[in-house]
């Protein structure tokens, strides 16, 4: 793979499960040599099937084959000295190691992350753990389900209906988010190593990844506005609705979209710009008529109309239909795996860069002897002074809302100079979505979502509808390393700023485009918000109750897209370092979503199984559910819950003991996961009675120290009450020239070489850096004053 940006980059994989597997898959796809070192029993994922399909002796599960394609496998027994020496020899000649707990190999003290970092100072050591390597919760058990509960992600954006328990987002999405973050951290750290620095320890917390991916900066929102983002569960309307031939998702996230929806359904009489009701309240008020209107039409009829009205929409993909959707067929979004199943294509496309095609997974220990006998060349640690990983990289940030800014924000936190380009007439949409009255002075500076997504950036305003504004943007791009945007393709087409134009301005620039559905295909120009991306990719299908329409996760589609885009940017920058060439990145939101939902199409094409949503039950644990406690919540409702997930038979024995060994739990049929799953209703009834008599804190205190994964279902704005997040300094307080100090999330991983603190400045004021940046571009004070007079730039909202 001579054209691959990570050729020669050697990664030892000491992890098990999805998070480490997906991290190293992303690195392997970029050309890295990944050596998966397994204990003699192998990664448990080799024997995993979400549908319970039978996996024969000597065979591997399809999901493992997807994640491990192109890697090499070495078996090492930590009880055998020669095997331990082999592992250390591999580490001495590697560039990075990915570690997670849970196998007899990784749990050996000599292979603990801090020990590896001390023994091999040249290495990038990435540790993926539920809560981080330190803090009061660092040794406590967790599952994807309980992490979603602790993070606030289960109730994050008011998902679901109030007459039932809230539900988690199905499909093990947090594991994929954690793997994506780990890959970003490794690639960023590598930039620092290539500049002559030493290795470092990356301490990634999966809980913090859940906070970043499944909630929408709720702490900053609460502290700036004095109210939570959502105080109740409400169905999004129309949201996911039944049509004659299936399910469609139709979004209504802005006032204009509500007006358009009214017009589309022939109800202009519902439009009332003076109503005190919110859009959500108005939509819920008219839900019966909206659902009846949709039920009388086919999915294509509803979607064609919605597209004509510029209303976000998508079909709700299922495991057996997602491949056949016209857009994915046209774009070749799915490809064959050598093991005989179908999988998503790469989550991004990079011009001039060869990403690894799907290839076979290694048999357990297939390459052990090869690595025992092959010569190796130990690496040495660099001694250059520490610098921020992306120091010296300039980014022209044309992004808006959540997906794009989440990509460029992480670049800024890692040291890049990010210049956010807005217009005084049409600023970033996140300056306008939080309900701050326009009667307030400088209301556009008081929006918490913008404040949270744009710290450590600079800001310039340019009216790109003017020739002078476009000319100045071109001059700015000429100084940039990266240009980022996430509009629908037609917007940049209208501005004449496609990649060819950027190349003419700056031939070696990396341009990352993040359209919802890609740069081609029949849905190319459709507006895309997180919820329609999640529906089209199949994530929504697994979220909710089987006897109701699926629920929209309404969250991770955006940050997941930003994470994958940043992985691609870091690959493209390495490609530029090696070749001097720029690159066009197409990081479609839906392609990133298809990859974290890959298990659905893999299970269907490999085993014929259509995975189903099942409320809060899931394939990885039994029992797994939410149970109501005795408390009244902060809103005065009988709506407080705990999450319990028993992932192993040993944890079941621990649960029985913690409950006082009641007779019902001693039934022999419940001793195995299969038996508990077959009797899930009975087990849930018993646990519900026990939890209902206790507070959430009491339940956690009884079960967690005993070794049972458990969590309180947190309201997301209460995240700072989690002692683990406080102990790790996950939030930093920032001052602001307009707003009172507030807490902001940092990054879900800590780099031993910094940054510390993570944030260098609060989010910029609109146009705050106009004079600084335009002066750098050669403009005089008189030139800048003329631009202000002409309205090309502005230092405040003038829409």
UniProtKB/TrEMBL annotation:
Highest taxon listed in the record's lineage: Bacteria
Keywords on record: Transferase
UniProt xrefs under Gene3D superfamilies: Crotonobetainyl-coa:carnitine coa-transferase, domain 1, formyl-coa transferase, domain 3
GO molecular function: CoA-transferase activity
Region Disordered: start-end pairs: 359-384
Pfam families associated with the record: CoA_transf_3 (PF02515)
Range of residues in the leader sequence: none
UniProt-recorded name of the protein: CoA transferase
Organism: Mycolicibacterium sphagni
Taxonomy of the source species: Bacteria, Bacillati, Actinomycetota, Actinomycetes, Mycobacteriales
